[in-house]
Amino acid sequence: MTTGVILLNFGEPSEPTREEVVPYLERIFYNNRFLEGDMPEAQARERSRELAEKRAPSLIEEYEDIGGSPLNPQAKAQVDAVVDVLTERGFDVTGYLGTQFSEPTIADAVAAAKADGVDRLVGLPIYPLCGPSTTVDALADLNGAVADADWDVPVERVSGWHRHPAYTRLRADNVRAYAEREGLDLDDDDTAVLFSAHGTPTHYLEEGSRYDVYVDEFTTALAHLLGVSEYTVGYQNHENRDIPWTEPETEDVAVEIDAERVVVEPVSFMHEQSETLSELDIELREEVEEAGKELYRVPVPHDDPRFAELLADLVEPFAADVDPEYYQLRECQCAAEEGAMCLNAPRAESE
């Protein structure tokens, strides 16, 4: 039995051109259209286009500054690495990349899997911390794409996985190795550790998203593994709409923090992309250096072999026809539809 593994991703434009960036942004804004209240579809699409046109010039400039986004090539390499691990474990698998807002789309991945004749699908979002417009929406898009393809195939979905112990160790080891290379003492009074998470509109938190809880528990665990006694959490917000976002903002924390050196670990990301290469390496660095401090940004371990191993761990129970609860996977509390499994759900009271 062949298992099709679709790694679900955000995606970024392959070229820093208006022809690619504007439609990409339109899809993102339309996906989050409810943040400004209910409105007719035509009005929502017009508003999404307006926001995309406004944001596009600065985003194109960001992509040009970093030489284009490396996200999609890194994501494709991760698919290949996961397939290699599962194949070595003796499973018959085929891998696909499906992105929410660029190409190949999630629908493209489903179409390719259907054409290949796989017997079942496993959808696994690549996002470290489960959020509504990322993990949850990506899984919903997968279900929708399968339905639109009129394909009667079993679909398994994995959502939150940041509690996998191998992942926390991987990030801790990566931070520690970077600090050693740079000659940094993370517990020095003049060195501040700043965990930077992708921001989210507070609307989602008010509706029940536990994203901020996941950020807090992951950064707490990471700090403990690093042996860091003090640290700060900041959010990288994208305030394209006049609505409240998570606080405090990463740039405010980095500038105001009382330390000579600021070490930034981008905990929400498993790729190098515009949010790391531009927002942190260029924009944040300028602000921090203007404030008379030094910025050290920890690289994202997107190609660490242990990452492919832990993603394979999440797929393995479905490829092996083993009860996913044996692997500590339980019914997800965040997914909009039943059937998704995650590592974040609590045990049942009877357990």
Automatic annotation (TrEMBL):
CDD domains: Ferrochelatase_C (cd00419). One of its GO terms (biological process) is heme biosynthetic process. Pathway: Porphyrin-containing compound metabolism; protoheme biosynthesis; protoheme from protoporphyrin-IX: step 1/1. GO terms for molecular function: ferrochelatase activity; metal ion binding. Keywords: Cytoplasm, Heme biosynthesis, Iron, Lyase, Metal-binding, Porphyrin biosynthesis. Fe(2+) binds at residues 198, 275. It holds the Pfam family Ferrochelatase. Its EC number is 4.98.1.1. One of its GO terms (cellular component) is cytoplasm. It is found in: Cytoplasm. It catalyses: heme b + 2 H(+) = protoporphyrin IX + Fe(2+). Its main location: cytoplasm. This is Ferrochelatase. It comes from Halarchaeum rubridurum.
